[in-house]
Amino acid sequence: MAVIEIRNLVKRYGKTVAVNDVSFKVESGTFTVVLGPSGSGKTTLLRCVAGFEKPDAGDVAIDGVSMKDVPPRERDLAMVFQSYALFPLMTIHDNIGFPLKVRSVPATQIDSRVKEVAKLLGIEELLDKKPNQLSGGEQQRAALGRAIVREPKALLMDEPLTSLDTPLRAQMRTELKRIRRETNMTAIYVTHDQAEALALGDMLAIMNAGKLVEHDKPLEVYARPSNSFVAGFVGNPATNLLPATVDAANAKNTLRVGKATFRLDASAFEMVRQKAGSEAVIGVRPEDVRVDASKRSEGSLDVVVDTVEPLGSSLIVTTLLEGNPFKLVLPPDMLVRPGDHLWIAWEPNRMHVFQKSGDLIV
What is the pLDDT of residues 197-233, one digit of tens each? Predict the structure, then answer.
């Protein structure tokens, strides 16, 4: 399996910088998910790795070898696209075996390898069918089989599950984890879906406006986002972000959020005061918020319920905090209605404090 290094990569389209000085390393046998909103540059980055796009600056190296002058077919990478791109007049057997056929692999070896891959993917009984006889999930498995049949150095995937319905996407996520575990293949997977990213990735590379804003393990990204963009993007519902005032006029080491105050320990407060000055941004995840029937502390805030979304296992409640949306995750049997007043609070050690520029402080 390959080690892929992305080194100070830049790709422009006219005046638009699609990829802006991005660098990170994909270790051998690991699954890296490139996550970001639409237009963040993640697909362009993947196409530069594949060789379909030529970078304006920087480099991609595979196993330490620069790919600057190496065409796509000589990089020994396989790519799975959002569209299945199967040959409609070929059987699934011939679709999967096609990469081996063009390399003049003997027919008996092709047949053996196709059946081996089909068994791995659970589509042995579909090999004699044509693509139009398969469901979307089955077609995607066949496309994946065609990509891995020749055992490339690495697998590149560009939002391969987007066209599937929700139950199939969940099923295919599970299958991808199993296949990835059994093949131990190096992979880069592009998506805007946070559930996919957190479920599949050994590492997350999060992009925004062409830049890499974080590269870390999924649980580290979730628990300790490096900036307010990541905090507000990763998670469903996303982290609530609120302006805060740093109260440095007394020795109470407090942050004021609306009409509530939160006490920090002395060292954390001093760090906030030095880096943020008088104004900061706090982030708190919806699941870390406590709902009370009445005001219980100086850290309690009065909110008004705006909308309630029952999801079976929980309620996603959007409230208004001084006119701004604030999300809560509540038990499914909790009776709340639009217009209800609630008191909310959270422990100071469950919130993050960011500079107004977005960088994490504590």
Answer: 999 999 999 999 999 999 999 999 999 999 999 999 9
- Last residue within a domain, chosen from 184, 201, 232: 232
Q: How confident is the model at residue 250 (pLDDT cuts 50, 70, 90)?
A: low
* Residues 146 and 279 grouped into a single domain: no
Q: What pLDDT sits at residue 251?
A: 65
Q: Please state, in angstroms and rounded to a whole number, the distance separating the CA atoms of residues 359 and 129.
A: 53
- The alpha helices in 67-214, defined as continuous H runs, are 92-101, 107-121, 136-148, 166-183, 194-200
Give yes or no: residues 203 and 299 share one domain.
no
Same-domain status, 325 and 226: no
Question: Is the pTM here over 0.70, yes or no?
Answer: yes
DSSP string, 112-128: HHHHHHHHHHT-GGGTT
Q: Which domain holds residue 271?
A: 239-354
Q: Do 102 and 221 lie in a common domain?
A: yes
